[in-house]
């Protein structure tokens, strides 16, 4: 690969992605863009990385076509329509498949995001060049017009996200899949042979199922966040923490909040800390709850992902897309049913859900996380109406 995104960890703890050439040299224009635009806007490390990966695809496409965009702008020209088409096609492929005749494509949302970042970068780059020209000169006006046409053409080629098939939308687990997962947590299904991995992974699943927190929030939980007396846990935001040794730091995307934990979860957590975590390598040198087996270092994002991969490989008849985030959707489905049983008003339910999920009080995010529940309720309502029609209408 001619280019790569590297992660710099500053002395302040900040994680800063940098686009580099194959020999490790930072690329100046993308670095300047990150510092003056993305970092200045307070974008997260993950967002900056996604933007740089998009810029990397753009640069690889330009290299493939032997296009020097700065030289073109000096000559008063910019991208042509067929080149915009090629960039849009390349942006729709995984980076590893670049230049290959691969049938694999990114999701519509991922491709749209990548084209958005490319569009923003091209505008920034062109604006910086135009600033050096006299705005009254014909050269300025002609180049500005060409840039606008190229950027508009690229934007028009972004996949439309307004209409999505229900099958393509994330939903919580079915009751059958949830029962399988509960059997893993309860120990009825033995997935991991290693004793520490079994205890840790069962506990991680229990945390995700009981609290509905994000993967990054789970990996960021520290021992000091848990109050075993009050049965509470603090879900904290600690972006760019100096004492987090993980280069790719798991982060909370939501507001800080205190959540109640059950006595059973508290007991499982306490047992893991005392009898399993304590025996893992360097675990006593930090206070992150979940640790890697053997080394005792804070568990990485890749390590958490491996948990779900190993369950899929174990042939447990779980959906292919089961992840920590799917369990967050599942929690919201269960919460909706609980609120319905309690006779809670929609307004009160939304406020309570937003507090527990770490969303703003006016957030509309709930609709994204309750698709299965809403679909099931709609199906029940339709069947009820159909039944009533059959009774009232009689036989033909």
TrEMBL record:
Q: Identify the keywords attached in UniProt to this record, alphabetized.
A: DNA integration, DNA recombination
Q: Which InterPro entries match?
A: DNA_brk_join_enz, Integrase-like_cat_sf, Integrase_catalytic, Tyrosine_recombinase_XerCD
- An example molecular function term from Gene Ontology annotations: DNA binding
Q: This protein's superkingdom?
A: Bacteria
Q: Name one GO biological process term.
A: DNA recombination
Keyword Ribosomal protein on entry: no
Q: Report the Pfam families cross-referenced here.
A: Phage_integrase
| Domain Tyr recombinase stretches | 168-383
Q: What is this protein called?
A: Site-specific recombinase XerD
The organism's taxonomic lineage, starting at the top: Bacteria, Pseudomonadati, Pseudomonadota, Betaproteobacteria, Burkholderiales
């Amino acid at each position: 690969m001619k280019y790569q995104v590297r992660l710099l960890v500053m002395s302040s703890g900040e994680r800063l992605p940098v686009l580099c050439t194959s020999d490790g040299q930072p690329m100046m224009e993308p670095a300047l863009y990150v510092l003056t635009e993305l970092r200045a806007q307070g974008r997260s490390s993950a967002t900056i990385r996604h933007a740089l990966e998009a810029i990397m695809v753009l640069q690889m496409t330009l290299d493939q076509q032997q296009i020097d965009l700065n030289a073109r702008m000096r000559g008063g020209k910019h991208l042509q329509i067929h080149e915009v088409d090629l960039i849009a096609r390349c942006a729709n492929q995984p980076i590893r498949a670049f230049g290959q005749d691969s049938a694999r494509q990114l999701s519509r949302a991922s491709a749209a995001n990548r084209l958005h970042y490319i569009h923003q970068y091209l505008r920034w780059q062109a604006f910086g060049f135009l600033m050096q020209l006299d705005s009254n000169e014909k050269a300025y006006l002609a180049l500005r017009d060409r840039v606008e046409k190229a950027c508009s053409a690229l934007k028009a080629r972004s996949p439309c996200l307004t209409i999505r098939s229900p099958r393509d939308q994330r939903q919580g687990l079915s009751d059958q899949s949830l029962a399988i997962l509960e059997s893993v947590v309860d120990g009825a299904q033995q997935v991991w042979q290693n004793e520490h991995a079994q205890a840790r992974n069962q506990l991680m699943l229990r945390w995700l199922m009981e609290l509905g927190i994000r993967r990054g929030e789970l990996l960021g939980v520290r021992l000091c966040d848990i109050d075993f007396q009050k049965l509470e846990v603090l879900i904290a935001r600690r972006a760019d923490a100096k004492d987090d040794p993980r280069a790719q730091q798991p982060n909370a995307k939501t507001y800080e909040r205190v959540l109640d934990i059950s006595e059973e979860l508290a007991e499982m957590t306490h047992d893991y800390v005392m009898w399993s975590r304590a025996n893992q390598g360097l675990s006593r040198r930090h206070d992150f709850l979940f640790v890697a087996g053997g080394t005792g270092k804070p568990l990485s994002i890749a390590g958490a992902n491996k948990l779900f991969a190993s369950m899929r490989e174990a042939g447990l008849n779980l959906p292919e897309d089961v992840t920590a985030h799917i369990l967050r959707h599942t929690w919201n489905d269960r919460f909706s049913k609980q609120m319905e049983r309690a006779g809670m008003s929609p307004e009160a339910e939304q406020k309570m859900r937003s507090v527990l999920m770490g969303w703003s009080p006016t957030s509309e995010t709930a609709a994204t996380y309750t698709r299965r529940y809403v679909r099931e309720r709609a199906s029940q309502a339709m069947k009820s109406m159909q039944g009533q029609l059959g009774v009232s209408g009689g036989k033909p």
